[in-house]
């Protein structure tokens, strides 16, 4: 499956490290837990960034990053009482990727575990610019 994420070009070296999520936490992880957030569609990845930063983001400084993740290594999120607990159970299993629902729009996001032994099976592609018609939001 091709997955997508939008990342500030100033931090391009960290696009697939999970460092931002580790530092700041997110819907599926508390600070201190390394996770890479991606989406099943490029448009959903853009919406996710805009939803979290509607007042601050000018997309001309961001790039769209794509990667291929083997379908058989993408799992469903374990059951649990909270989003953080469910993601913690998935991470504890050491698997590479899991599906989670988007809170922004119908669709699926993919959490990636860069600490998984299968991380080498992810194929990343050079980033591409986002359509300039979406610039100037910040």
Set down the secondary structure blueprint.
Elements: E1 2-8, H1 19-24, E2 36-39, H2 42-52, E3 62-68, E4 74-76, H3 83-93, E5 97-101, E6 108-112, E7 123-124, E8 128-129
Parallel strand pairs: 4-5
Antiparallel strand pairs: 1-3, 2-6, 3-7, 3-8, 5-6
Structure description:
This protein is an alpha+beta fold. It has one domain (2-105, 119-133). It contains three helices and eight strands; from the N terminus they run E-H-E-H-E-E-H-E-E-E-E. Helix 3 (83-93) links the parallel strand 4 and strand 5 (97-101). The relative contact order is 0.25.
Rough shape? globular
| Proportion of beta-strand residues | 25-35%
Helical fraction: 10-25%
Helix-strand category: alpha+beta
Tell me the number of strands: 8
Q: What count of domains describes the coordinates?
A: 1
Mean pLDDT: 91
Main beta sheet strand tally, sense and closure: 4 strands, antiparallel
Q: What's the end-to-end separation, in Å?
A: 32 Å
Point out poorly predicted stretches: none
What pattern of helices and strands is seen along the backbone? EHEHEEHEEEE
Number of helices: 3
**Rg for CA atoms:** 14 Å
């Amino acid at each position: 499956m091709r997955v997508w994420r939008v990342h500030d070009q100033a931090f391009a070296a960290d696009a697939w490290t999970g460092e931002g999520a580790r530092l700041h936490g997110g819907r599926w992880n508390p600070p201190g837990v390394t996770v890479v957030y991606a989406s099943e569609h490029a448009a959903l990845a853009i919406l996710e960034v805009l939803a979290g930063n509607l007042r601050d983001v000018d997309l001309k400084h961001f790039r769209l990053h794509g990667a291929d993740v083997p379908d058989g290594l993408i799992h469903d999120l374990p059951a649990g009482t909270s989003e953080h607990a469910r993601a913690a159970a998935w991470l504890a299993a050491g698997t590479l990727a899991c599906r989670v629902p988007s809170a922004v729009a119908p669709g699926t996001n993919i959490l990636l575990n860069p600490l998984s032994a299968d991380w080498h099976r992810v194929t990343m592609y050079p980033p591409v610019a986002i359509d300039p018609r979406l610039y100037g939001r910040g």
